[in-house]
Amino acid sequence: MGTKPKIGIVAGAGHLPRRLVDQCLVDGRSFFVFAIEGHASQTDFQDVPHAWIKLGRTGDSIALAQREGVEEIVMAGAVRRPSFTSLLPDATTLKILGKVGGVAFSGDDGLLRAVIRFLEDAAGLKVVGVDQILDDLVPELGVLTSCIPDQHSWRDIERGRGILDLFSAADVGQSVVIQESLVLGIEAIEGTDGLLSRCGDLRRRGPGGVLVKMRKRGQERRVDLPTIGVTTVKNAAEAGLRGIAIEAGGSLIVDREDTVAAAEDAGLFIVAVGADVDGPLSSDTVAAGITRHGAKQQSLKVYIIAGEESGDALGGRLMQALHNGVSGGIEFRGVGGASMAAQGLNSLFDMSEISLMGLVEILPHIPNLRRRIRQTAEDIASVKPDVLITIDAPGFCKRVVDVLPPAVECPKIHYVAPTVWAWRPGRVHGFKRRFDMLLTLLPFEPRYFHEVGMEAAFVGHSVLESGADAGDGKRFREKHDIPPDDPVICILPGSRPGEVSKLLDCFIETALRVRQSHPTARFVVPTVPALAETVRDGFRRHGLEAYFVSDEAEKFDAMAASNAAIAASGTVALELALERVPTVIAYRVSWLTYEIVRRLIKVKFVHLLNYLAGEAIVPERLQADCTPDRLTTDIELLLGPAGEEQTAALEVPLKQLSPGAGTAPSTAAAEAVLSKLGLTSKAC
After folding, report:
1. Looking at domain 7-132, which of 3.30.559.10, 3.90.1150.10, 3.30.10.20, 3.40.50.20 is its CATH number?
2. DSSP letter, residue 256
3. What is the DSSP letter of 601?
4. Residues with Cβ < 8 Å from 666, sequence gap 6 or more?
5. What is d(CA 438, CA 436) in angstroms, rounded to the nearest whole number?
6. Is 649 helix (H, G, I), strand (E, B) or coil?
7. Which pLDDT belongs to residue 556?
8. Residue 9: how many CB atoms within 10 A of its CB?
9. Which of 50, 174, 341, 355 could serve as 45's disulfide partner, Cβ 3.0–4.6 Å?
10. CB atoms < 10 A from the CB of 533, how many?
11. Which residues are within 8 A (CB) of 538 and not within 5 positions of it... i.e. 6 or more apart?
């Protein structure tokens, strides 16, 4: 596989940065340490290549990384959040802070995501997780000590999981201490050790409490994973606790043997549990097969491929659900984007290279696609995975399967059924020939494949887990000083370069016309990072001001703040429906592509919810109908009573997207994958 890229270790406090250094030395991997002044150990890096850096001097640090030939970055160790006045930021840091606003000093996730995006998009540095270098630090599901939680402890752990899940939306801490179902403390700026010190004084009579430490929901996996070590155990013992519960597959144990030994000496348990707050916890879980005493099961190898933004989101959620459901370790390899990277995937190449659409538009890219198909197939053969999961992007994924060598005998599962109910029904045979199982988003799809003898399971539409129904419109308006009565129009020109090139000017011209009849109208433009500058240039060219949003959470806030929307057909149309935003969808492709597809397609509607409802609830303006005149008329109507009528009518088809019984689509998908492998999910 060749020499690994030189890695930069950004070192905060604690033992973890030095562990990374030692592993690099063992592996013979080239590295350079960026030791953060006031946080990193003064003595840990004297014998290795290093430099001291200041928080807030991001530009200097990037320049140093480039001089040292660093290609990848890993962040490890605790860093106390500074005040703005003490930070003394340089121009680069100010640029990052400007993208996240006040959240930079109120929570971790928004700031960390902004830093990662900047390092990868602007500086060309790839950010990897600690667990991709030190995979032995990630605990498997189970009790790791001879001391086992009693029923009181299980109840406290379950309550702690629920509390942390509730507070995750506010980006507050990763730890909570529970005693007899009472919350003694929630981690704030003082960190876990400070929390334990504080809770020692708050301890009640009776059995001691439990420290529960979990990732925040949707947290960026590559940085700031919940971490415990010997010091955590000692502080927990001093605080009179009975034990510690951490997230299986989503946390780190530094110096695992010493940490477990310290817990044994103190009479504390350490247990790794699933993150799903709906999953039951009890001593029965242990009896049912949880690993005891740190006995490590062989890792499950999963090769997973996604080829576009929506597939990457599906892949990220599926990976997290598999992490929660597998009792042993799990190793991911494959191709994906930011969402899958956040769950630990180091993509074989940039996913954007295969994120292409259109019969004519794809022609110039065929030579590179062929090269990437061969490369992916060769990588699968070298990894020898236990299962191959391909997500959407059928043109690429089918061809990868076609060139796999016979030695690759693992089950092949495709996630997202081809729309055989809409066009080219004969594709069912090609999928049956290539794949062993199909996971479908819609309830009526499995029967098309059952008819030819292919295994297929409805798992629900992943858009239900996107957070699209939880946007905070009031927060967005207050952040941008938008009065409550000013109409906000959401403009979504697509997530692919070809879509933006064909739709952006039309959408902007529509916005300019809407502004004539609604002078106070504001425009918000959610876009993917790779296309953000292209979209901004388009608005500058037309002289139209807008609010541009790349962060996923803020995107949903922007949608929730909107009174109407113009959107490219696709997943965003479903997200807008979940946010109850009256919408018109529009789409254009090349003339030749349209003429070919028009003769093949069998359905009346492009919007999925229109298809499920059997009527055009959402206006569809395609090809020649995609004009500023037509779209302006639609928006004018949607800003009135027609908008309320649309959102009410969409409630029935939206319910058909759920797998039911309160099960999340990603959990249903993970259960189907594990069932195909003869495994039982431990998180459900």
Report:
1. 3.40.50.20
2. H
3. B
4. 314, 317, 318, 320, 321, 462, 465
5. 7
6. helix
7. 93
8. 30
9. 50
10. 12
11. 500, 504, 505, 508
- Dist CA 402 CA 420 (whole Å): 20
Q: Within 10 A of 589 (CB to CB), how many other CB atoms are there?
A: 20
Q: What is the mean pLDDT of residues 602-613?
A: 82
- Tokens standing for residue 231: 């010091």
Q: Are 584 and 634 contacting, i.e. CB atoms less than 8 angstroms apart?
A: yes
The tokens for 192 are 């876990």
Identify the band that residue 453 occupies on the pLDDT scale cut at 50, 70 and 90. Answer: very high
According to DSSP H, which parts of 519-639 are helical? 532-542, 552-560, 571-578, 591-600, 608-613, 628-638
Distant-in-sequence, close-in-space partners of 122: CB < 8 Å, separation ≥ 6: none
Strands laid side by side in the 300-306 sheet:
330-335, 300-306, 387-391, 412-415, 437-440, 456-458
SS (H, E, C) 418-462: CCCCCECCCHHHHHHHHCCEEEECCCCCHHHHHCCCCCEEECCCH
pLDDT of residue 290: 41
Q: Biggest alpha carbon distance in the chain?
A: 77
| DSSP secondary structure string for all residues of 74-101 | EEESB-PPPPHHHH---HHHHHHHHHHG
DSSP secondary structure letter of residue 240: T
Q: Tell me whether the CATH fold assigned to 300-461+665-676 matches the one assigned to 473-655.
A: yes
Spatial CB neighbours of 22, under 8 Å, sequence gap ≥ 6? none
Structure tokens belonging to residue 505: 């000017």
Which of 222-236, 248-262, 328-342, 430-444 reaches the highest mean pLDDT? 430-444
Helices vs. strands in the chain: H and E counts, helices first: 27, 25
- Residues in the chain, total: 684
Q: What CATH code is assigned to 138-287?
A: 3.40.140.80
563 token code pair:
């009174």
Please provide residue 167's backbone torsions phi and psi, each rounded to the nearest 5 degrees. Answer: -85, -10
Structure tokens that stand for 186 in this block? 């929630």
| pTM value surpassing 0.70 | no
Per-residue burial over 173-203, b if 16 or more Cβ lie within 10 Å, else e, is bbbbbbbbeebbbbbeeebbbebbebbbeee
Tokens describing residue 360: 């004519």
Domain locations along the chain: 7-132, 138-287, 300-461+665-676, 473-655
Under CATH, which number does the domain 473-655 receive?
3.40.50.2000
Residues 525-536 have pLDDT tens digits of: 999 888 889 999
Nearest one of 98, 80, 100 to 89, comparing CA atoms:
98
Vertex 449: Cα angle to 445 and 451 (nearest 5): 115
Residue 340's nearest CA partner among 132, 548, 495, 535 is 132
- Residues in contact with 427: Cβ distance below 8 Å, sequence separation at least 6, in sequence order: 418, 420
- Where helices occur in 68-205 by DSSP H, the ranges are 84-87, 91-100, 109-117, 151-168, 191-200
Whether residue 231 contacts residue 262, with contact meaning beta carbons closer than 8 Å, is answered with: no
pLDDT of residue 297: 42
